[in-house]
Amino acid sequence: MISGCKHPESDSFDRFNNKKTEDESTIESKTSFIKKNETIDETNVIKMETENGVKYVWVEINDLKLRFIFDTGASSICISPAEATVLYRQGTLQKEDIFDVEYFQDATGKISEGTKINLRTVKVGNIILENIEATVIDNVNAPLLLGQTVFEKFGKIEIDNINDEIILK
Question: Which of 118, 123, 164, 165 could form a disulfide with 60 if both were Cys (CB 3.0 to 4.6 A apart)?
Fold first, then answer.
C-alpha cells in the first residue's frame, strides 16, 4: 500500500487549470452538515455540465472531487473499483465502511453484483451529507452515478437547462 499518497483533488484542486480553487475557509463557512437520517431545509444550487445529452455535476466523496452523471434513475451513488481503491489508499474508505455484496439491476435490465459501502461525506454544492450508502460496481469502466441515496435528502430537485444549474431544495 502507498502511504502518504494524496490525490490533488482532495484539497479543492482544479485539475484542469492545475491550481487551487476557493480558499478552504471560505468553503467551510458556506457549508452545512447533514446527518444520515436528516433532510435539508435550504436551497443548494450546483452547476451542471452537459455532454452528449448527459448531465454531469462535480461532487466530493470523502474529500475526493469527482465528476458524476446526474442520474435520477440510479438508486444510489455508484463508483468503480478505481475510485474505491483511491479512497481506500487515502484512508477515507476504511474496512468498517465496506459492507456486503449486493445485487442491482442496471438500465439494461441486467442483474449485476456490487459491494455496498458507506461514504462518510458527500459534498454536493455547499451541503455535506454524512454516512451515505453507495455501491462499488464490479467494473473498472463503470460510470460515476449520483443517485437517489443523495437526492432523497432533498425535498425538491429542479433542473434549469437555461442556466445549466441543478437546484436542490
Answer: 123
Nearest Cα residue to 132 out of 114, 146, 111, 142: 146
Please, are residues 6 and 86 in contact by the beta-carbon 8 Å criterion? no
CATH topology of domain 33-168: Cathepsin D, subunit A; domain 1 (2.40.70)
pTM, to two decimals: 0.75
Residue with cell 459491494: 115
**What single letter denotes the amino acid at residue 114?**
G
Per-residue pLDDT reduced to its tens digit, 113-162: 999 999 999 999 999 999 999 999 999 999 999 999 999 998 899 999 99
How is the chain split into domains, by residue range?
33-168
- What is the DSSP code (8-state) at residue 41? -
Residue with cell 435528502: 153
Q: Which residues contact 44 (CB under 8 A, 6 or more apart)?
A: 124, 125, 126, 127, 154, 167, 168, 169
